[in-house]
Design goal:
Residues 23-324 form the Beta-lactamase-related domain. This protein is α+β, with helices and mostly antiparallel strands. It folds into two domains: 25-338, DD-peptidase/beta-lactamase superfamily (Beta-lactamase, 3-Layer(aba) Sandwich), CATH 3.40.710.10; 354-436, Lipocalin (Beta Barrel), CATH 2.40.128. It has helices spanning 9-25, 66-80, 104-108, 131-137, 155-169, 173-185, 223-226, 232-242, 253-259, 324-338, 354-357, and strands spanning 30-37, 40-48, 61-62, 202-204, 211-213, 229-230, 264-266, 272-274, 279-283, 286-295, 298-305, 310-316, 361-365, 368-374, 380-384, 393-397, 403-405, 414-419, 425-430, 433-436. β18 (414-419) and β19 form a beta hairpin. α1 (9-25) packs antiparallel against α10 (324-338), α2 crosses α5 and α2 (66-80) packs across α6 (173-185). The termini are far apart.
């Protein structure tokens, strides 16, 4: 947040009221919530107690499946280093699996078709198996669906991804996580096991105001799916990474963006999307990204609103965590309404880019108009001109000098300037669609050519068509 921007007391009251309502109505032993902006915690609120004392932003809770999002970051780091490809069959990195044809990307996106849970006793409540023992139990019938056909959430799939990380790095999954994510982000209170100041996990009786202690076992090989303990302050730092507002050198902006691009749809849960280790939700103010988590005695939620550069974290120590994810979403809604993000101040470009400038202005794909504007950061923003139906988007120049679409229909497609003999740009080729400076410019290389009589009057006075 800019130095002159702060949370108004009235906003803080709304945030605390929403937190208090969920803790009370869901009967949660304790609840800690926080809101971040610009990579720093700007509000926090607590209700209930941990061992008789009020918890705080540094009180560790078990975060369950938020662990998966961190595991996904590690896998994408391997991909960015060229050690792993998302299209690699998992057999290439973890041989001997009965589903070795499933790809790394399918495992990340829960599109591998694997069963949801490990072929063990209820893995969240018992001591976990080591990888070798878990792998020995895997069978071909652990595959429930064809690859890439449907979203099916799989804790087992993320255990496999954790083993991929361990084998590729030559160290344990958690050692890699600590070295590559926790340390660079300053997440000093995030741990593999509960520390002495961690919250105890409880189950709340459904028909009485009574509680029951829950176990907190080491998940073993299943740890990459849900093992970690963390705090509101630490997860606020992680939210900053997901918003690309914390510079820890952990993951490139392009890979962070790729994580949040939904590849599958969880139709059973209101058609929410899932990208690479993270859920996507369509909200009134845009897309919200994040992940919930649960383990015996704990429920957690971490969600970010990219358009508002705002994150929300909610941690509680109850198996039946009530509206934990809903509370995180509500905190984002309150911030959007009462503390809208101001955004960066516009400044002119530092120096002209004549080559890119030659591409700006109106272009036409047939009769449909497209306007290209050059930003101070060097991107080309494409917008449809009034009364036309041209696809909008953003293009960024590659290292080889060509332009690649970043979003929408043209994502991944190339924009290539077409030049005449004198080197002047006379057309744009965007994924084979040719755009010219005027509609159907007869002097430009329009595929199929342009009718030799040009634009004509329609009606009885028009001449017979030329064939």
């Amino acid at each position: 947040m800019p130095a002159d921007e702060s949370i108004a007391p009235s906003t803080a009251r709304h945030l605390l009221a929403a937190t208090a309502r969920v803790q009370r109505e869901s009967r949660l032993p304790s609840l800690v919530a926080g809101v971040t902006r610009g990579g720093r915690l700007v509000w926090s609120g607590t209700r209930g107690t941990v061992r008789g004392a009020e918890p705080g932003v540094h009180t560790p809770y078990r975060i369950g499946s938020i662990t998966k999002t961190m595991t996904a970051v590690l896998v994408l780091r391997l991909r960015d280093e060229g050690l792993v490809a998302l299209d690699d069959p998992i057999e290439k990195h973890v041989p001997g699996l009965p589903f070795g044809d499933r790809t790394v990307g399918q495992l990340l996106a829960h599109e591998s078709g694997l069963r949801a849970e490990a072929p063990t006793d209820w893995w969240e409540r018992v001591a976990g198996l080591g990888w070798d023992e878990l792998a020995a139990r895997l069978r071909a019938d652990d595959v429930l669906f064809p690859a890439g056909r449907r979203f099916h959430y799989s804790n087992l799939g993320y255990a496999v991804l954790g083993e991929l990380v361990a084998r590729t790095r030559g160290r344990s999954w958690f050692h890699a996580l600590h070295r590559e994510l926790l340390e660079p982000l300053g997440m000093r209170h995030t741990s593999y096991l509960a520390g002495p100041h961690a919250a105890d996990g409880w189950a709340v009786h459904p028909w009485a105001d009574l509680v029951l202690p829950e176990p907190a076992e080491d998940a073993g090989a299943m740890a990459p799916a849900g093992q970690l303990w963390s705090t509101v302050a630490d997860l606020g730092r992680f939210a900053g990474l997901l918003l690309n507002s914390v510079d820890g050198g952990v993951l490139s902006a392009s890979s962070l963006s790729e994580m949040g691009q939904a590849t599958g749809v969880d139709a059973a849960a209101g058609r929410r999307g899932y990208g690479l280790g993270i859920f996507t939700y369509e909200r009134g103010g845009g897309v919200v990204l994040g992940h919930g988590g649960s383990m015996p005695g704990f429920v957690s939620g971490l969600f970010v609103d990219p358009a508002q550069q705002t994150g929300a974290v909610v941690l509680t120590n109850s198996t039946n965590g009530g509206e934990t994810n809903g509370l995180a979403m509500a905190l984002l809604d309150i911030m959007r309404e009462h503390e809208p993000y101001l955004g960066p101040t516009w400044t002119p470009a530092e120096q002209p880019d004549d080559e890119a400038l030659a591409l700006t202005g109106p272009w036409y794909w047939g009769p449909n108009g497209l306007g290209l504007r050059l930003t101070g950061t060097g991107d080309l923003i494409a917008t449809g001109l009034a009364g036309t139906a041209t696809r909008a988007g953003v293009f960024r120049r590659d290292a080889d000098g060509e332009w690649t679409g970043l979003e929408g229909y043209h994502q991944g497609e190339r924009l290539r300037p077409v030049r005449d003999a004198e080197g002047r740009v006379v057309a744009l080729d965007i994924g084979t669609f040719v755009f010219t400076r005027t509609p159907y410019d007869p002097a430009a290389p329009v595929p199929g050519g342009v009718h030799p009589k040009g634009w004509q009057v329609q009606g009885p006075q028009a001449g017979a068509p030329v064939v």
